[in-house]
Amino acid sequence: EVQLVESGGGLVQAGGSLRLSCLLSGFTIDRYTIGWFRQAPGKQRELVASISASTGTDYADSVKGRFTISRDNAKNTVYLQMNSLNADDTGVYYCKPVVGYSWGQGTQVTVSS
């Protein structure tokens, strides 16, 4: 059974940091490009960062220089280090392969200003 479990969210003050983790089970991730997505209140879900099988990374302009995506294939886990957080980063964060698969429950990130 495929499961996507995001964790590490919480309430943080502007300027703070959080590290999100995503444990993917039921398949091996090593050949997949994995993305972190977020859905802010009242907005559509957007891709904020992705990491390819060869560990190439890509970021939305709004998070470049502040967020870092990484992966540990041995642990079937993908991470998102988020620094210099601001109120616009508030939302529910999800991870999954950028193509296919269903969404997990996500993890809530709230940045207070």
What structural category arises from helix and sheet content?
mainly beta
Q: Which regions have little confidence, pLDDT < 50, spanning 5+ residues?
A: none
- Give the overall shape, derived from the CA principal axes: globular
Name the assembly state: single chain
Count of DSSP H/I helices: 0
DSSP helix fraction? under 10%
Please report the total strand number as a whole number. Answer: 10
Report the sheet-strand fraction: over 45%
H/E element sequence: EEEEEEEEEE
Largest sheet: 6 strands, mixed
Strand order of the largest sheet: 2-10-9-4-5-6
Computed over alpha carbons, the radius of gyration is: 13 Å
* N-to-C CA distance: 40 Å
- The whole-number mean of residue pLDDT values reads 97
Could you explain the architecture of this structure?
The protein is mostly beta strands and 113 residues long. The protein contains no helices and 10 strands. The chain has strands at residues 3-7, 10-13, 18-25, 34-39, 46-51, 57-59, 67-72, 77-82, 91-97, 107-112. It has a 6-stranded mixed β-sheet, with no helix packed on it. The protein has a 4-stranded antiparallel β-sheet with strand order 1-3-8-7, with no helix packed on it. Strand 5 and strand 6 (57-59) form a beta hairpin. The chain starts with a strand and ends with a strand. The model has no long low-confidence stretch (mean pLDDT 97).
